[in-house]
Design goal:
about 575 residues; alpha/beta; Aminopeptidase; Glucose Oxidase, domain 1; 2 domains; 17-stranded mixed β-sheet; two-stranded antiparallel ribbon; 16 helices; globular
Length: about 575
Amino acid sequence: MKTSLLSAAALSALTLAACTHVPDAATQSLDQLTGRAPTGDGMADTMVSDATAIAPPQLSEQTMKDVTRELSSDAFQGRAPGTIGEEKTKALMVQRFQQAGLKPGNEGSWFQEVPLVEITARDFSPLTIGGGKQALSFRNGDDFVAVTYRETPSIDLKDSELVFVGYGVNAPERGWNDYAGIDVKGKTVVILVNDPDFGTQSLDGPFGGRAMTYYGRWTYKYEEAARQGAAAALIVHDTAPAAYGWNVVESSWTGPQYLAQSNDKGADQTMINGWVQKPVAERIFAAAGKDMNALMQAARKKGFKAVPLGETASLSFQNDFSRKLSNNIVAVLPGARRPDEYVLYTAHWDHLGICKPAPDGDDICNGAVDNATGSAALVALAEAQVKAGAPDRSIVFLNVTAEESGLLGSQYYADHPIYPLARTAGGVNMDALSLAGPAKNLTVIGLGKSDLDDYLNAAARIEGRTPEREPTPEKGFYYRSDHFSLAKQGVPMAYFESGEDLVDGGRAAGAAAAEDYIENRYHGPKDEYDPGWDWTGVMSDLRLYYRIGRELAMTGDWPNWKPGDEFRAIRDETADQRAGQ
């Protein structure tokens, strides 16, 4: 989720101002703008291309409007993987990539098959809690949501012992194990969302202080619960540490769920993964005679011991499931001088499909902002890059599937790369471009992690904008979009949002717009195309994407992660594959 930049008049004035401070900025190289010497992957004398005079890009606002509007129309039925929406999306994106002048990106094909499993749960029993001071019963949707990652026609959890495991973290390198001293095999674990440092105002602490680590993500918590042998895992939803309301959980976790195919058909997973509303958890703890607030505080401290609640959970439901192939859409602009070196643009095309109806009966989650805008950006950037002529390196346009199901499409590409990741210089990810209005700043997710900061800073300076650290690192945005899949494999990836310091209304207006989107449209049927949108800020973002990608494609530099970064080691392991380039 993002925010954006200027009115046309303001942009014109700001561009002139930028040129006053940065003479001939549009034709300056990265090294001229940053004042740095050429660098590259720790290898001496790596040359930055002398062909880095980047003309102002020819980016089409009409393309952005047309592609976003069509992808988010009801005819695409919310673009769920494996549906008619996917087929329509593939046809449209290929048509637009062809018209732009790109080539098929996978050995003559526009597609990379991604094997998925679709599981749709139905016929839920109540979630019943026994063994406490009183029997409790909760309703699916209103009180809890639940799915299974197992390919099985039915799930029947009976009298499974409840255990509170704090944040559900097992991190030996940090000396932290919420599962120490307890066997949860066959039991149901109750887990807090985010990680133990949530609420800390600084960035100091065993889990990065205020900034969320991967240990705070729901994906990790379910993975660890399965490794521990739990029968079920229930995360307690709390809006602040989750960074979204229950409406987002309900819309995302009801209806079809998509998983990566596995050889054991999910047998190594828990029977049930789910969420419960915080008031539901409070009732469960109270019936167990436990002080939930006191236990939550205890869970934040090193040495916390899991607490059996003396209660049992029961839940059953049926599943409809099928194995199917979805697709990443892959296009390429071949490089003219070093076609075997690559730059990536990524964006996900999928959304939630048919979802919980809005009060007016609308049940299509159209995903206009999230992420028809990002897919449209791939097309607009392709058009501009082709018009600029073939760069030195090849530019790959990767429109991935199943991001909403846990980054499955980008993870599949990262595990089965079409182009060698060791020879991928870096890339830019685009996810939900903001239409809140023009902004003066931009928010960089993961600022300070890699050498791509230099590229972004140079592009932002030309555009007259100020890069800033994300104001809400506790929300874990770094782990919530497709750049993360590539970063885990060592590829430096830039990911930024437009910023909330709006030209009209400042930070207060930006924060209000972001909150309104999260509460009223994000992952819901009202994320729809609006013909009245102001695209000025989006186009400023697009110019940044263009310049970063173009510079990466024209330079001989090999950006790396900063020393000590979590992804540096895996990048360094492949340095010999770039040596001498």
